[in-house]
Write a sequence for this structure.
C-alpha cells in the first residue's frame, strides 16, 4: 500500500506500491551489472566503478574484482535490526513469521525492550502476525526507527 498524505488525511492505495522500495524494505537481494551499478548479496552491499574506461579495462584484463567496491558487510545482528527498521516502513509492518524464518527467533522476544517501550508510547502495535506502526507511530516514525539503529 502507498501512503498519500494530504493536509487532512492519509489515503492508502493498494496496488500502487513501489516494487523497488518493497523489495529493498524486505531485504531482497539484487545484482547490478555494468558501470556504477549496485548489488546486495548475502548481506554485502557493493558497487561497480563509476569509470567506464576503468570498467572496460578491468573486464578486458579479466580483473573483474577490481571493478567492485564493498560498502558494507552486515552481521546477522545488523541484518535483523535493519529488517525491523525497514519492515516498519511498510503499512503492514513486520511479519513475525517471516522474521522467524529469516533469523530463527521471534522479534517480539529479540526486541522485547524496544517493542514494550514503543507499544507503551502508542507508537507500535502487535496485531496477530504483524508488528506495525500505529496511527500515532506513522506521525513519529523516525522515533520508532531510531530504536532499531
Amino acid at each position: 500500500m502507498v501512503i498519500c498524505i494530504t493536509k487532512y488525511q492519509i489515503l492508502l492505495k493498494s496496488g500502487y506500491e513501489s516494487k523497488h522500495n518493497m523489495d529493498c524494505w524486505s531485504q531482497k537481494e539484487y545484482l547490478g551489472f555494468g558501470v556504477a551499478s549496485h548489488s546486495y548479496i548475502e548481506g554485502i552491499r557493493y558497487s561497480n566503478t563509476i569509470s567506464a574506461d576503468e570498467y572496460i579495462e578491468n573486464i578486458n584484463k579479466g580483473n573483474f574484482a577490481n571493478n567492485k567496491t564493498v560498502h558494507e558487510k552486515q552481521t546477522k545482528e545488523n541484518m535483523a535490526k535493519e529488517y525491523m527498521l525497514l519492515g516498519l516502513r511498510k503499512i503492514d509492518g513486520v511479519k513475525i513469521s517471516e522474521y522467524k524464518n529469516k533469523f530463527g527467533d521471534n522479534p517480539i522476544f529479540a526486541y522485547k525492550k524496544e517493542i514494550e517501550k514503543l507499544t507503551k508510547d502508542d507508537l507500535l502495535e502487535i496485531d496477530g502476525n504483524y508488528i506495525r506502526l500505529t496511527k500515532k507511530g506513522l506521525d513519529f516514525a523516525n522515533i520508532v526507527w531510531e530504536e532499531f539503529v
Notes: The two ends are 25 Å apart (CA to CA). The longest strand covers residues 68-73.
